[in-house]
Amino acid sequence: MRILLVLWFMTRVALAREPAIWDQFVAPRSQAEANRVSGQLNQLYLAEVQRLARPQWWAKEVAQRCRQNLQEISSQGLAPPPDARRFVQEYAAEQQRLALLYPRCTSEIRLQTGETAGWDLPERSFRLTFDDGPKPANTGRVLALLRANRKPAIFFVLGKRLQEAAGALPDYQGFLLGNHSFDHSNLPTLNPQQLAKQLSQTEAAAAQAGLVLTRLWRAPYGARAARELKAAENLGLHSVLWNVDSQDWQPFMQSQPGRIARRTLALMLLHRRGIVLMHDIHSQTPAELALLLNYLQPLNFTIVP
Ligand SMILES: [Zn+2]
How close is the Cα of 153 to the center of ligand 1, in Å? Predict the structure, then answer.
């Protein structure tokens, strides 16, 4: 526990220059709270934190898994990324930070039976998901790319953006739609009425736009606890998370072309199965998606609906 607190403190210091979004979440503020929180963690998560608390060991294992994957793909004409070692170190640090920041509502913890983050998919199978849209022109480019490559995807839409795009909605035909709340509020901060409204208003906005939402939903930021899951369950909604985070919303990822696609590919190779998180609202996303689909071509991965 002491090492967790030290890491937590280091994380807080490192976070001073992070975007405000990180501040919306509650990290343990005392030893007692940290103890209580850690007691709530499921076994998988605890094991992960313990591994991450020893970065050298973790880096070695990840590097080993990367090497195996890379050997396999290099025979198919893809060169291994030159900065694989750095990537592994950065990713381990990122996971450490997430684990300590989001102990109660993290997207990394499966809280309820029926929630999925993609670990249950068959090996080499992935789902592509796009959040926060629609943003008509940009979403349209993403849809066109997916159609041209015959890849299915799920779009987790915001009710507010559906309303704003009325009359100029992108053509979602052939793709699945899920509920991502009305205006991307941080759900655990809302009262029960506001919470229910976030979900039901999005359903209404979709119906108004002539769209049918699936019974899939995704909490903004992955921030949900038992209460949020219960509210969604009352509406018959199933929670869908992710295990491959493209980080395509981060300015430092966007500033270097290809970085988002390379990170996403590296995580797909590492995890071998899962749900990829991207955002169709960012102008860089279509080009990064095109690059990613290019990388995936020789890999014999299946993109499933
Ligand atoms: Zn979102």
Answer: 16
